[in-house]
From TrEMBL:
Name of the protein described by the UniProt record: Amino acid--[acyl-carrier-protein] ligase
Statement: the UniProt record of this protein carries the keyword Ligase: yes
UniProt keyword list: Ligase
Domain of life per record: Bacteria
GO molecular function terms noted in the UniProt entry: ligase activity
Entry-linked Gene3D superfamilies: Bira Bifunctional Protein, Domain 2
Aminoacyl-transfer RNA synthetases class-II family profile domain location: 147-289
UniProt keyword annotation of Cell division present: no
EC numbers for this chain: 6.2.1.n2
């Protein structure tokens, strides 16, 4: 029997991940958070030339905006809703009785009108749409949010709640494709400065069901999505740490985003998985950042 600890077990033993009794849900050490904060600042330095408008949203959106986004059409298996107790004292007593008896007490919970954010960019589209037509320069946003996906796993890179840093571009097809190409190059440059092994490859989203397989094939054929992959859990199945996505006019049609010429706006985004990059650094440089290569420490601002 192989007694070698898994990467997850090593992270827990080192104190960098703190189990919370649910797969894919962990507390983080101060060292973990320090690295993640330094990564966030590094991303800001690489994105400074974008002159992006900074927005920070809570990790939840309205149920109405969530439904309008059409997320449920393609990713129903990832969605998470917020339900709350809305009963009277009698129903409260019943809840307490269920807890005391070890029964399911959540049956009486009702939808609160709030849905957990699935991706950092989702709250931004209706906000920008309310402003009216885009300017000639389009719109570039700098976003950061906790995101939720119901994807319990023993892989430490597959968390149910995680932080996503994004830059989002809205404008003409030429503007957003130039944006994506810029970040394909800049993202690789940033990750190589961290001395991480990587490849960039065409990818697809994990769409749901039989129709989802057709969507995934089309996405790959059109090269709408690229991922920057780093071996973290294994060499055979590297982890997507950055994603570069061209949505075409999908969100423009949903939210009536228009260019100054009254054309449907196109959108693109680059997403940075902050926990995943942190875990990649642990995997390749060790659990003590003070022992990391000097050039990596310098890039991150020292430890």
């Amino acid at each position: 029997m192989d007694a070698t600890p898994t990467f997850l077990e090593q992270l827990i033993a080192a104190g960098h991940l703190i189990p919370m009794g649910v797969d894919g849900l962990y507390g983080k050490s101060g060292v973990f958070e320090d690295i993640l904060d330094k990564l966030d600042r590094l991303i800001s330095r690489h994105g400074a030339a974008q002159q992006a408008e900074v927005m920070r949203f809570p990790p939840a959106i309205s149920q109405q905006n969530f439904e309008e986004s059409e997320y449920l059409k393609t990713f129903p298996h990832f969605a998470g809703t917020v339900h709350c107790f809305c009963g009277d004292e009698r129903e409260h007593r019943r809840v307490l009785d269920c807890v005391a008896e070890g029964k399911d007490w959540t049956e009486g919970q009702k939808a609160s009108g709030v849905v957990l954010t699935p991706a950092a960019c989702y709250p931004s589209y209706p906000v920008i749409a309310r402003r009216g037509p885009l300017s000639e320069q389009g719109v570039t946003l700098d976003l950061l949010s906790y995101c939720f996906r119901h994807e319990p796993s023993l892989e430490p890179t597959r968390l149910q709640l995680f932080r996503m840093r994004e830059y989002v571009r809205m404008g003409t097809p030429e503007q957003v494709l130039a944006f994506r190409q810029h970040w394909l190059e800049e993202g690789e440059k940033m990750m190589r400065s961290l001395a991480l092994p990587l490849i960039i490859d065409v990818a697809n989203d994990p769409f749901f069901g039989r129709a989802g397989r057709v969507l995934a094939a089309s996405q790959r054929e059109q090269k709408l999505k690229f991922e920057l992959l780093v071996p973290v859990n294994s060499e055979e199945n590297p982890t997507a740490c950055l994603s570069f996505n061209y949505h075409m006019d999908h969100f423009g049609l949903i939210w009536a985003l228009r260019t100054p010429g009254d054309e449907v706006a196109h959108t693109a985004c680059v997403g940075f998985g902050l926990e995943r990059i942190t875990l990649a650094l642990f995997r390749h440089h060790g659990f003590d950042p003070k022992a990391w290569p000097a050039e990596v420490q310098a890039v991150l601002g020292g430890f």
